[in-house]
């Protein structure tokens, strides 16, 4: 104790003071006072309510003379005290805050995942999920996944509770449904909107071809690359091989007349216009096996609906618009064959019609008019003044259209499985359906059915593409410009059960010639295209509650569709 007393006297005049209760670092006096236990040189352990009862001796040290701090503590009472808890060191305080943050995140994760999987003690009345961006760039379809929805599904009791509440939403939507006839724009209005397109495509075509074809003067020379600026070749690596081949054979297929060069340009004779996930890929793969059928260089150019507006991927916004010349380039392979037939026949027999027909199979053509709002602003009450079919009809009033449909309930589930990138489950699908229905209801409260169906903002906000299954809305709009006998509507269910029958319907519709038994077998007995992926099959069918909800939602639209087509099969009652 004598030594300790001498130490205290030696450093009593120091300008730094440290409390052995809380300080382990040498701190300036002004910072040391910030410690809630240390109140400066006048701090009295006997009077301080925190320090009272402790026999601790503070040491005064000179920080200028000492490199290391040695803290001596003399305790007269060795019993443990809770007072140390209130004087946490800085590191301990940070650890406590970090621990609280981790605990908060864990609790938030429990709440979110618990609500999703029905694990909460008090479940949410609606199992709404978060907004997700819409997929949709290549609308591919499935055929053999038809049988998946017949498999048994486990009942999730928590989702059964959703049905009454969501049924009220559907009832509200149903009460607002009104099928109205749209105002068809006149030709001059269309010309004002797309003057370049009308300057390139003539209003008369070659008489001895089933396709809308014409000769266009080519002003380049042998060193000129005719596809140098083609946007399909520039933006997609998988199309470059096709264009490399076209470059090699391009000059050989020019028509030379009076020191000028002409290239044959063609538009399709028929279009497979929809719908996605309804079997159009399988129909396309079978049709292109027919010896008289040719398609565009790529299955789905999406030019009428997206590329001509500069949409490459919906999530990436707008790019430079693809001119109509880029679209016409996609039919050069078919045009070369047609030109060869025309020239050979012209030498033998004048006026004989070429039998080759060209098709195009973008499954977005029937329904996707999302870009109109950015280009056509003279709309009435949110409805688009111009639709895709208006322009197609302006150039090709005799075009033929093929539509493949399926039960819209199963189509939506197949669409979800194909485009969803992660966390796919029947529960997640249920949540996205519920959220999409509520969004659609909100739109229907303020706008017409057509305005909501073609609403770009709504369509991008809905986690699943409910609107694609409203077939009759789109079909009625196509029937405002095309005659009914120009449109063939098929069901995927019929195609899956009897491929030969549906293909014969298509051949007859397109006026294709008869086939040999070998050719017909090749077309009708080929394996189905674009079937459901194994990992998606493992998820099984949707929840029964989800199916019941979607049945109620689509019922009035299916009823109207069956009336328009005079076919109750489009009610999809059996499925």
UniProtKB/TrEMBL annotation:
GO molecular function terms attached to this record: N-acetylgalactosamine 4-sulfate 6-O-sulfotransferase activity
Membrane-spanning segments: 93-112
First-level EC class: transferase
Stretches assigned to the Sulfotransferase domain: 268-532
Domain of life: Eukaryota
Protein's UniProt keywords contain Membrane: yes
A Pfam family: Sulfotransfer_1
UniProt KW Transferase keyword: yes
EC annotation from Swiss-Prot or TrEMBL: 2.8.2.-
Keywords, ordered alphabetically: Membrane, Transferase, Transmembrane, Transmembrane helix
Record GO biological process: hexose biosynthetic process
Gene3D superfamilies, alphabetized: P-loop containing nucleotide triphosphate hydrolases
Family under the similarity heading: Belongs to the sulfotransferase 1 family.
Name of protein: Sulfotransferase
Phylogenetic classification of the source organism: Eukaryota, Metazoa, Chordata, Craniata, Vertebrata
Gene: CHST15
């Amino acid at each position: 104790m004598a030594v300790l007393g001498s130490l205290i006297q030696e450093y009593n005049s120091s300008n730094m003071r440290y409390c052995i209760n809380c300080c382990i670092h040498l701190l300036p006096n002004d910072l040391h006072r910030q410690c809630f236990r240390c109140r400066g040189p006048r701090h009295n352990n006997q009077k301080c309510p925190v320090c009272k009862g402790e026999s601790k001796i503070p040491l005064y040290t000179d920080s200028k003379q000492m490199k290391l701090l040695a803290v001596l503590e003399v305790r007269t009472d060795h019993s443990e005290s809770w007072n140390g808890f209130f004087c946490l060191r800085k590191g301990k305080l940070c650890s406590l805050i970090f621990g609280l943050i981790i605990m908060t995140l864990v609790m938030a994760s429990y709440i979110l995942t618990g609500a999703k999987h029905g694990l909460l003690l008090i479940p949410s009345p609606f199992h709404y999920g978060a907004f997700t961006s819409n997929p949709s760039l290549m609308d591919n379809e499935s055929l053999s996944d038809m049988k998946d929805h017949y498999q048994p599904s486990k009942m999730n009791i928590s989702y059964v509770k959703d049905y009454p509440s969501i049924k009220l939403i559907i009832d509200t939507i149903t009460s607002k449904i009104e099928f109205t006839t749209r105002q068809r724009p006149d030709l001059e209005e269309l010309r004002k909107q797309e003057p370049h397109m009308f300057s390139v495509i003539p209003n008369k075509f070659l008489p001895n071809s089933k396709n809308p074809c014409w000769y266009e003067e080519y002003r380049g020379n042998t060193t000129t690359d005719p596809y140098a600026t083609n946007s399909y070749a520039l933006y997609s690596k998988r199309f470059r091989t096709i264009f490399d081949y076209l470059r090699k054979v391009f000059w050989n297929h020019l028509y030379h007349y009076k020191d000028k060069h002409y290239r044959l340009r063609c538009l399709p004779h028929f279009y497979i216009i929809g719908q996605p996930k309804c079997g159009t890929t399988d129909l396309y793969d079978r049709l292109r096996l027919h010896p008289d059928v040719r398609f565009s260089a790529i299955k789905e150019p999406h030019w009428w609906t997206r590329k001509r507006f500069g949409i490459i991927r919906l999530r990436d916004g707008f790019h430079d618009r693809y001119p109509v010349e880029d679209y016409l380039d996609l039919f050069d392979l078919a045009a070369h064959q047609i030109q060869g037939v025309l020239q050979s026949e012209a030498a033998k027999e004048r006026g004989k019609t070429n039998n080759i027909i060209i098709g195009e199979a973008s499954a977005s053509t029937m329904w996707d008019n999302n870009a109109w709002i950015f280009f056509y602003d003279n709309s009435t009450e949110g409805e688009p003044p111009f639709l895709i079919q208006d322009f197609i009809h302006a150039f090709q009033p005799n075009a033929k259209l093929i539509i493949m449909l399926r039960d819209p309930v199963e189509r939506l589930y197949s669409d979800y499985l194909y485009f969803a990138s992660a966390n796919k489950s029947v529960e997640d699908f249920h949540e996205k359906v519920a959220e999409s229905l509520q969004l659609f209801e909100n739109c229907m409260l303020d706008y017409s059915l057509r305005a909501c169906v073609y609403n770009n903002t709504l369509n991008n906000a809905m986690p699943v593409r409910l609107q694609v299954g409203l077939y009759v809305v789109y079909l009625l709009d196509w029937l405002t410009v095309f005659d009914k006998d120009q449109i063939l509507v098929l069901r995927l269910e019929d195609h899956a059960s009897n491929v030969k029958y549906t293909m014969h319907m298509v051949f007859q519709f397109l006026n294709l010639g008869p086939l040999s038994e070998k050719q017909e077998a090749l077309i009708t007995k080929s394996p189905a295209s674009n079937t459901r992926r194994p990992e998606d099959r493992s998820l099984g069918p949707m929840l029964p509650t989800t199916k019941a909800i979607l049945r109620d939602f689509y019922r009035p639209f299916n009823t109207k569709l069956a009336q328009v087509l005079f076919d109750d099969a489009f009610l999809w009652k059996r499925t």
